Amino acid sequence: MASDTDFYSILGVSRDAGKDEIQRAYRKLAREYHPDVNKDPAAEERFKQISEAYDVLRDPKQRERYDAFGPDFRRVPPDMDPADYARARAGAERRTSSRGDPWGGGTGTWEEWPEGVRFSSGSAEGIDLDDLLGGIFGGRGRRGGPIPGSDQEVEIELSVEDAYHGGSRSLTVEGAGGTRTLNVKIPPGVVNGQRIRLGGQGAQGLGGGAAGDLYLIVRIADHPRYRLDGRDIHVDLPLAAWEGALGASVEITTPGGPATVKVPKGTSTGRQLRLRGRGLPNPKGRPGDLYADVKLMVPHRLTREEERLFEELAGTSKFDPRRRR
């Protein structure tokens, strides 16, 4: 997961990058690796990493904690000083390197580091696991204070209509404490791959520690009518040949309700007719657009009168669709 990788490296920016630079890097990478655009099997995991890195680095408070504590920033108690954390980490690494695997066999001498954490010499049976775990977090363990719970992630699949309108969903979450059912609120306009944070709904802490957060990873299911490109929605618009030639007003169905498309004269298959703002909503900015992708259709069977009229048109028209323009 991305928590084991440097977020700055994921976005390809320096550690002193400004907010605008981080946003530009995210948009460029998101367009490149979005699963709706990039069909490489590895693109989806890469997109998750990019989204997580951006969610953290765009938030000043989260970024400050990430800079101070690195990948452990979500697990470190909120009131812990970075200097104490660095000292505890160094002590844990020093103990491990002096003895080897603390869970394995063998003998050796353990030091008192950090202060207040004691280890016995001799076999591994003398290790006090409460003290060992507590020492990593500045003396916070079953004896020294609460340990916060870890964050969790769960995927939630939505239809295009659900993503457009939002609403409430019942969600089953499995964890160490068993299975829980949550009623969650989905905001209108969520996009594929978006992370929705539910504060305090993650794993439970130890010794009275605060629970972690639960992150919902949005997955929008394929739809028989609509295709998504970020917040833009595409829908096929079948037209009769004379509608494309003469122009027409055609009513179509959209996730937001009925809409009318004005078809200009001389419209051919492949033309995209845009309805501004009729794509997915955007709570923080401009909504997406809806694109009607034109497909000219002809009858499978013609009546005698239709056939006569088409023959008359063929005999009088000078139009050659194969002639280069």
TrEMBL record:
<feature type="region of interest" description="Disordered">
    <location>
        <begin position="89"/>
        <end position="114"/>
    </location>
</feature>
<dbReference type="InterPro" id="IPR008971">
    <property type="entry name" value="HSP40/DnaJ_pept-bd"/>
</dbReference>
<dbReference type="GO" id="GO:0042026">
    <property type="term" value="P:protein refolding"/>
</dbReference>
<keyword id="KW-0346">Stress response</keyword>
<keyword id="KW-0143">Chaperone</keyword>
<dbReference type="Pfam" id="PF01556">
    <property type="entry name" value="DnaJ_C"/>
</dbReference>
<dbReference type="InterPro" id="IPR018253">
    <property type="entry name" value="DnaJ_domain_CS"/>
</dbReference>
<feature type="domain" description="J">
    <location>
        <begin position="6"/>
        <end position="70"/>
    </location>
</feature>
<dbReference type="InterPro" id="IPR001623">
    <property type="entry name" value="DnaJ_domain"/>
</dbReference>
<protein>
    <submittedName>
        <fullName>J domain-containing protein</fullName>
    </submittedName>
</protein>
<feature type="compositionally biased region" description="Basic and acidic residues">
    <location>
        <begin position="89"/>
        <end position="98"/>
    </location>
</feature>
<dbReference type="InterPro" id="IPR036869">
    <property type="entry name" value="J_dom_sf"/>
</dbReference>
<dbReference type="GO" id="GO:0005737">
    <property type="term" value="C:cytoplasm"/>
</dbReference>
<dbReference type="GO" id="GO:0051082">
    <property type="term" value="F:unfolded protein binding"/>
</dbReference>
<keyword id="KW-0235">DNA replication</keyword>
<dbReference type="Pfam" id="PF00226">
    <property type="entry name" value="DnaJ"/>
</dbReference>
<dbReference type="InterPro" id="IPR002939">
    <property type="entry name" value="DnaJ_C"/>
</dbReference>
